[in-house]
């Protein structure tokens, strides 16, 4: 691995490494036999979770080595000794708009003024030195004095300005069953038997699609084997190339668990919970995998989207306030921009009342009332044109269900306000949008192993969601904070049609990708700790052709 590759990988996640940091990183990569991509994944996860997104430093890398890499290296050694025992056995009202902008700009400093783990021991001297250095190095610039506001940081397609008819009304519908309202939701009441049966059916469903798509069949004949199943780890930890097991369905006439020898497989990208088909040979009860198939991606809807005039959508993702206060300044600035641009549709994705905010417990009323007041303030600003607003809940909403899938909010109905569940597939005049507020991309970076695959890792991770037809294809869930109802997830939240636009917010760096004709975006977050974040603007031109609808879509990600 070259120094140039390492610098490029670190810059991709927003880091500007110094010479000592580069030297230390190269040393770590050599010592633990990892590449630049793996190192940046480890640093992203470690710094976000335990160092408050600190800039990369030599001290931070040392902490990463001590607390993560050393432990994984030890576990890997144990895995090697264990695996040997395993065999095959198993325009418009401008006056109103200008009034709104002026009102926002002249508002009191508080938009909400009417509202009244220690992973490392705190005594760890190395951690203390690291945090102290971080606090000295970072300049805490006041949010109002930030630079780069409005800058386009990423773009896709023809982003020349298009005018939109702000009086258009679109038919917004949620595809699927009616599970998603609080009245109908009975989450986390499933029995183990029901969940097991649902998993088994899902293995057969996805497995057979993969076989059909690749024109192959299940085969057990004279040492040749073609089989499908779900990837799992032998020891329950992250898989590695020596601990991959394929769990078959009840319909398979053979072992229920098969150890996969992937040492000679040309290429793969695997994670626990992934449903695959494997082709290979058996030698002395050892299944040597020659090829792995993973693609069960659905097709686009057969009907053309009914988009005859240009459509503009703005997407903002919470948290909507800085970690040092509850003033919601980034949200205020987003609303100012919305009032000026007047999009047709606004998608706001939670958390709105962030349960992880340091000041969350200082709120002197119920979280439900606080959220309702926040929503009222938002709606009061957006008058003067018939904008349609879509609200997507988050697992981290303090006022809502702490489970996934997450039912929609229940609030007073308003004609231009749509409450949807998370995750969901939305149809806007036949234009399909998939949304998932849970950070599945970050989860996948921690669990995926790969060999000889495309270098565009974010595109590859997004493709997993589509190919598995699942907004959360990981199993088991290794994030103990997240309660997942797998029965509802597999029954009601499958991706049964390919969306034209897929929104996957993540703490990872923003991106816009063409993934097999689907535009996948990570808008990142509107507020990032003490500073402003980013949001997305999606423009959809009139659609008049069945092929390459993505050519009619453009997108920008902008600094708030």
* Rg (CA only): 24 Å
Tally of distinct domains: 3
Structural class, judged by helices and strands? Answer: alpha+beta
Annotation field: number of helices: 12
What is the fold named in CATH at topology level of the largest domain? Purple Acid Phosphatase, chain A, domain 2
CATH architecture descriptor name of the largest domain: 4-Layer Sandwich
Strand content: 15-25%
How would you sum up the global shape? globular
User: What strand order characterises the main sheet?
Assistant: 1-23-22-10-11-12-13
Count the beta strands.
Answer: 23
- How far apart are the first and last residues' alpha carbons, in Å? 36 Å
Characterize the biggest β-sheet: 7 strands, mixed
Task: Please give a quick description of this structure.
With 560 residues, the protein is α+β, with helices and mostly antiparallel strands.
Please provide a written account of the structure.
There is one protein chain. The protein has a 7-stranded mixed β-sheet with strand order 1-23-22-10-11-12-13, with no helix packed on it. A 6-stranded mixed β-sheet has the order 2-14-15-17-19-18, covered by helices on one side. The protein has helices spanning 3-12, 19-32, 36-50, 58-83, 94-105, 125-137, 192-213, 329-341, 367-381, 440-447, 457-467, 486-492; strands at residues 152-156, 172-174, 219-221, 224-233, 244-247, 257-261, 268-270, 275-283, 286-293, 311-317, 345-349, 388-392, 417-419, 424-428, 431-435, 449-451, 501-503, 511-515, 518-522, 527-528, 531-532, 534-540, 553-559. It is 30% helix and 20% strand. The chain is globular, with a radius of gyration of 24 Å. The relative contact order is 0.14. The longest helix is centred in the first third of the chain and has 26 residues, at 58-83. With 560 residues, it is of the alpha+beta class. The chain is built from 12 helices and 23 strands. Helix 8 links the parallel strand 10 and strand 11 (345-349). The two termini are 36 Å apart. The chain has 3 domains: 3-83, DNA polymerase alpha-primase, subunit B, N-terminal domain (Helicase, Ruva Protein, domain 3), CATH 1.10.8.530; 154-186 and 307-559, 4-Layer Sandwich (Purple Acid Phosphatase, chain A, domain 2); 215-293, OB fold (Dihydrolipoamide Acetyltransferase, E2P) (Beta Barrel). This is DNA polymerase alpha subunit B. Residues 313-513 form the DNA polymerase alpha/delta/epsilon subunit B domain. InterPro entries: DNA_pol_a/d/e_bsu, DNA_pol_alpha_B_N_sf, DNA_pol_alpha_bsu, OB_DPOA2, Pol_alpha_B_N. GO terms for molecular function: DNA binding. Residues 199-293 form the DNA polymerase alpha subunit B OB domain.
């Amino acid at each position: 691995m070259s120094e140039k590759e390492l610098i490029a990988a670190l810059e991709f996640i927003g880091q500007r490494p110094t010479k000592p940091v580069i030297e230390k990183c190269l040393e770590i990569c050599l010592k633990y036999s990892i590449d630049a991509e793996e190192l940046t994944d480890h640093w992203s996860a470690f710094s976000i979770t335990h160092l408050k997104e600190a800039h990369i430093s030599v001290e931070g890398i040392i902490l990463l080595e001590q607390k993560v890499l050393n432990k994984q290296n030890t576990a890997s050694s144990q895995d090697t000794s264990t695996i040997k025992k395993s065999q095959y056995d198993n325009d418009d009202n401008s006056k109103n708009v200008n009034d709104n902008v002026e009102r926002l700009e002249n508002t009191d400093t508080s938009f909400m003024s009417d509202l009244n783990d220690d992973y490392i021991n705190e005594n760890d001297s190395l951690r203390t030195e690291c945090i102290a250095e971080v606090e000295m190095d970072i300049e805490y610039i006041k949010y109002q004095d930030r630079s780069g506001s409005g800058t386009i940081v990423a773009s896709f397609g023809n982003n020349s300005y298009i005018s939109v008819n702000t009086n258009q009304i679109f038919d917004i519908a949620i595809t699927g069953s009616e599970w998603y309202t609080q009245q109908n939701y009975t989450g986390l009441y499933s029995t183990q038997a029901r969940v097991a049966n649902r998993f088994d059916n899902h293995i057969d469903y996805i497995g057979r699609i993969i076989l059909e798509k690749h024109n192959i069949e299940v085969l057990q004949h004279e040492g040749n084997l073609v089989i499908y199943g779900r990837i799992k780890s032998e020891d329950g930890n992250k898989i590695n190339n020596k601990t991959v097991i394929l769990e078959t369905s009840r319909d398979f006439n053979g072992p229920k668990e098969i150890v996969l020898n992937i040492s000679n497989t040309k290429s793969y990208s695997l994670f626990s919970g992934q449903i695959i088909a494997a082709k290979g040979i058996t030698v002395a009860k050892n299944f040597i995998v020659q090829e792995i198939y993973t693609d069960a991606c659905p097709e686009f809807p057969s009907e053309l989207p009914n988009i005859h005039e240009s459509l503009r959508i703005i997407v903002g993702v919470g948290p909507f306030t800085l970690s040092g206060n509850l003033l919601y300044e980034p949200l205020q600035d987003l609303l100012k921009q919305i009032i000026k641009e007047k999009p047709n549709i606004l998608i706001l994705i939670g958390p709105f009342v962030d349960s992880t905010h340091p000041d969350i417990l200082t709120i002197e009323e119920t979280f439900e009332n606080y959220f309702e007041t926040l929503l009222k303030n938002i709606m009061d600003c957006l008058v003067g044109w018939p904008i349609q607003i879509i609200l997507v809940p988050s697992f981290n909403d303090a006022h809502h269900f702490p489970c996934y899938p997450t039912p929609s909010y229940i609030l007073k109905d308003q004609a231009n306000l749509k409450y949807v569940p998370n995750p969901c597939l939305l149809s806007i005049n036949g234009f399909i949008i998939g949304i998932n507020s849970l950070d599945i991309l970050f989860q996948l970076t921690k669990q995926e192993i790969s060999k000889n695959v495309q270098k565009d890792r974010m595109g590859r991770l997004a493709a997993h969601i589509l190919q598995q037809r699942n907004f959360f294809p990981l199993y088991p869930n290794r994030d103990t904070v997240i309660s997942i109802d797998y029965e509802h997830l597999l029954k009601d939240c499958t991706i049964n049609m390919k969306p034209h636009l897929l929104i996957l917010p993540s703490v990872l760096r923003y991106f816009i990708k063409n993934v097999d004709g689907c535009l996948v975006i990570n808008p990142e977050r509107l507020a990032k700790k003490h500073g402003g974040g980013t949001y997305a603007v999606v423009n959809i031109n009139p659609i008049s052709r069945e092929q390459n609808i993505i050519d009619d879509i453009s997108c920008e990600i902008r600094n708030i």
